[in-house]
Each structure stands twice: as structure tokens, then as C-alpha cells.
Amino acid sequence: MTVTGILHPGQMGATIAATCSGTTLWASAGRTAATQRRAEDAGLTDAETVAGLVERADTIVSVCPPARAVAVAQQVADAGFAGVYVDANAVSPTTAAVIAELFEHYVDGGIIGPPAHLDGTTRMYLSGHDAAAVAERWAGSVLDVRVVDGGVGAASALKMCFAGWTKGSTALLLAINAAAQHYEVHEALFDEWAISIPDQAARSDGAARAASPKAWRFEGEMREIAATFVDAGLPAGFHQAAAEIFGRMTGFRAADAPPDLDTVIAALLDADGVGPS
Amino acid sequence: MTVTGILHPGQMGATIAATCSGTTLWASAGRTAATQRRAEDAGLTDAETVAGLVERADTIVSVCPPARAVAVAQQVADAGFAGVYVDANAVSPTTAAVIAELFEHYVDGGIIGPPAHLDGTTRMYLSGHDAAAVAERWAGSVLDVRVVDGGVGAASALKMCFAGWTKGSTALLLAINAAAQHYEVHEALFDEWAISIPDQAARSDGAARAASPKAWRFEGEMREIAATFVDAGLPAGFHQAAAEIFGRMTGFRAADAPPDLDTVIAALLDADGVGPS
What is the DSSP string of B139-150? Predict the structure, then answer.
């Protein structure tokens, strides 16, 4: 019987835990009521603290905002965890290597797709020595877990490249809309797009609505991708700029409903860069 | 009878001249044999020098690489041109304003699409006081000339926003491919794209082939877009990075055939950033 611990059951993490076979644990200390509710809905067992999780789990999977990944790993290492640590976060290969240093048994990971509620939507890539053994825990579930060749860093690199395009191009598209608004040619741009890039106006509005609630954690992810590029001898600017764009949208985290394109543009052009909240 | 001068009949400029009504002039001094051939094919009259053009034309249209736009304008202004000067180049609104200062009658312009050989492919946007009068010269031609509201700078801003997306996203896509290659996850990325972003692999190869022959002039255009963003209070990084990517591809200008994706990736990852030529 396998015992897998999850840090933490956020919207994504809860589905990673819910789709995992065997016993699945979480640690309630210091978590929000929303996390508590998700953990209960997913049928997770409460180990109460990270120390409790470390004592009972043979494998711990970290699913958290990228800016928290090293701190979460350090907490687990400090509690003396001797099992397999899986960092499934959107971090650079270099950050993954830093985390790997903390554990004797380490598996690198990266998740692509939305929270795994439906078959075929979401893949978790794993790389490193114990990747295949860890992957078996999700056999037959709606989460598609795949081993990627190349050892520690490969799964993170794949995630960085994938998100570097999807989120990087989203930030660029929103910034272009803001520039057009600043120069009072937004309507002319939409007219031109209607001729030459059909759906680009709708794509802009969709990007505003989809990215806004999550922009607060995209900022850290973009900084990890910028570092990934630098380590490859490629320019960091695309994702440094994307981090700044998403940083100006953090105020939408608490919005009741996703904002429309005009509202996002206003936040991007706001000199204080604070957003509307 | 209108007399329009064109500086210079490159691949784009030759079609701008060929579609213009009335007498169209060019200046052969110092131009290449290829430009000579294009000017003859387009039926242009040779005024020999910029001074000759300035003496005979009532309107002069500049179509040149963005990095040359100010120098070309200065040459015309120094020759005492008193007619309407049209800068149709991919420059920032601020650069357009600098050029506008050189002339009493100035029209801002921006071209979107390929050289205008066929109906419906190419638009030239014009803005400023004399824009509508200038636009009439192309009435009924395959070049679709449109007036954009907002005065000097509006047509340039529209071009910057349009190209900021098309060329900026092309550079990002090529850079992502290079990063994946560096981390040895390029095949894994293509496998993931086959599931989640159909056509993205083909789009990558198409971007490599289409951008490579023109990358040498995209570099300067990206720097103009970066300046356009800064003047709008938006981050310059996207297009500074794009300039660096295209800068590493300048060696393909002289290639016999457009390179494939692997060849472009190799140039991007080349530490010297020189490319293959």
C-alpha cells in the first residue's frame, strides 16, 4: 500500500491527490478553509502538520506557486524526509536542481493542463531515477502521467518551454492591446485584425478573462522561465516583460468575476501598476 | 498630374510605386542592380539622385528598413524638399514625430502585408493632415490605402502594434524551440504540442523559413517597437528579446534557400550569435 503526501491541495493539487491510488495525505496546519474543503472533497487523510506527513508518507508531491517551491521543499527536508520527493511545480531546471540537492530520492515534475477533473485534459510529466515507479500511482486515472527522458530537470524544462509559449504569448497579446489603447489605435487594430488575423480580437478578450484570476502566480512562473532562458544562453526579456504584465494584474485575484479586456488594459496602463483592487 | 517619388524601390517599395497613379520617380544613384531591375519592371522614371527627385516630385514616399528611416528623411530635407513627405516605415510614433519635424507637410504611414502584387493582401495606413489627399493616388489599385484617425503617429502606432504581435510572437516561438533543444526536450515538446496545440510544430518550422531571409531588418523594427512600448509605459523586454533573436538570424539574409527549423535553432544557440553565414 502506497502512502502519498500532497503539499498542498490547491485547485490543481487537490486533483493530483484525488487521482492518486493508495492512501493520500495532506497537512491542514495553516491552510485556508477553501483548501480544507477541497481536501475533504478529494477524500484525503489529514496528517495535520508537515512533520506528520513526513512521518507517514513514502512519497511527497509538491504542487504550489513557483515562488514557494524552494521554501516548501526546505520545510520537508528540514523535517528529515527520507522518501521520494516530487517537485511538480513550474520552476526552472536550475531551481529543480537546487531542490534535488535537498533529497536523496528526487523526481522532477511539471504539470500541463487544467486541474485534472476530466480524462485527457491534463498531463503530469516526471523525470529522474524514480519517475516510472512514481508514475504508476496514477495508472488508470484521468491524470495522464508520463515519464520524460533526460533525468532531473527535463520535466521542468518541458513545462518551462510549454508555458513560455502559452503564457508568454498571452502576456504579449495583452500588452499589444494596451499599447494600441495608449496610442488610441485600438479600434483600428481590431479592424486590421478582422481582415488579417481572424479571431485575434476574441482571443484578446479570452486572454484577459482567463489569465486575470491566475496572474498573481504567473508572475513568479515567468521569472522562472526567464531564468531558464538565461541558462540556455537565450534572452530573458520576453518573460521578464511577461512577469511585469502579469504583475500589474495581481489585483484581479480577488475579483468576483473575471474582468473584460478594457478593464485589464486599464490596469496595464495604470502607472502605479497596482490594478483595480 | 501627380508626381510621386519613391525611396527606395525594394521588394515592398517597388510595388508601392507600381500601384501609384501619375508619374512615379526613383533615384538610381548608389542603388543595387536588383533595385534597378525592380524599378524598370515597375515602369518608374529615373530621377537619378535624391536632389533630382526632390526637384521633380510633389510627394515623396519613404519605404526602407526602419533603421534607415531617419537618415533617408534627413537626406530629403537637406535637399530642400517642400512637398509632402510620407514616411511609410515601421518606426515608433516618437521616431515618426522626429521625422515630421523635418518637413512642413508630413504624412505618417505604415504598411501591413506582403509586397502588393495581388488584390486584398496589403494595406498602407496613412495619418496626418494630408493623408486623404495622398491616399487618392492609389484609388482603384491592388494596394488598399486607408486613412487612420489620430494625426501623425497613429499609422506608425498601428503598424508597431500589428508587427509587435506577429513578429514578436514569431521570435518567441523560435526562442522556445531553441530552449527546448538546449534542454534536450524538443521531441517531448513536439509530442505535447501534438496533443494540446495542434499545428504548433508546423508553425515553428514555417516561422523559421519565413522569418530567416528578413530577420536582418526585423531586428531594427523590434527596437522601434520596444521604444513604442516604453513610451506607453509598457515593458520593453518582449521586443528587446525579439531583436536579439532576429539579430542572431541575420546570417540567413544571403542564404540560397530559407533554412529549416533545426538550422535556425542552431544559429540561436550559437554562443557567438553570428549565425551560419
Answer: TTSSSEEEE-SS
